[in-house]
Every structure is written in structure tokens, then in C-alpha cells.
Amino acid sequence: MLDHLLIWLGAYYWQAITTGQVSCRFCEGGARASICGPQDIPSQYTIRNVKESYGVMIVCSSCHRTETNTLSHCLFDLPQVQHFWHKHSRMRWYPVREVDYQGQPALLGRFQSVIDKAGIDVICQRETLEILQIQENQLNAQKPER
Asked: Which of 51, 67, 126, 144 has its CA 20 to 30 A from that of 44?
């Protein structure tokens, strides 16, 4: 059941990110979506004392509900990250950080197995959150013997 929910959430939020509009989850009215930066993320979106810095904000023109979803959550909903999670059920999330990718401002999201050194990196364009690269790595995948 969780898999189905994450697939649905991923489709919903990535549609919002890529098209700028979705149907409201509450009333099914038309809702506009916009990319939000650090100044727009509500303070309650803090994980391990790290405030989320980017995400998507959806505002319904019918019922006027507003919802914000963080980039780390949107990245977790991606099929490639879900696949990684199924292979590495114990993983940690690293806060999204700003990087330069092929000469443009970008955001790097990283998930890493806590069992071995396998990880998956997702790079997004900073202004649009367009996915620029997803790379899974297995470097040093075996944890050293103690």
C-alpha cells in the first residue's frame, strides 16, 4: 500500500513541478503550483534541525488551500529512488545542497544505504527543479569487516 501511495504522490507532485498546475487533492479544483525557495518553506519543515530549502507550493483557486512539499520528499517519490530504497531498505537522507552542474545552478539530493556505501544522487536545476541527472553508485559497496 505504501508503494502505491508513493507512486501517486510522486506523479502528483512532479506533475505540479513540471506543468505548474494540478487538481487540488482536497476539492479537485484547479490548483497552481510554483517552485519555492528557502524564504518560502514554512519553518515546520525541519528534519534533524536542518530546514528544508526548496520545494513546491500548491495553491487551490477553488478552496484556497495551500500545501507545500519539500524537494527531499519529491526526490524520495521518484521511481529510481524508490527502486534504490527497495534494494537498500535502511537508508539515510542527506539535506539538499546547492551545487554547480554543467555551468548552471543546481541542487543535489542524496540518499545513502546505512548498511553499505551504496547511494543515489539526484541533481535538479535550481530554479525549475527539472531533473538533470540521477546516478546510483555502488562504490565501496561492501562495508569493511570489523
From this structure: 126
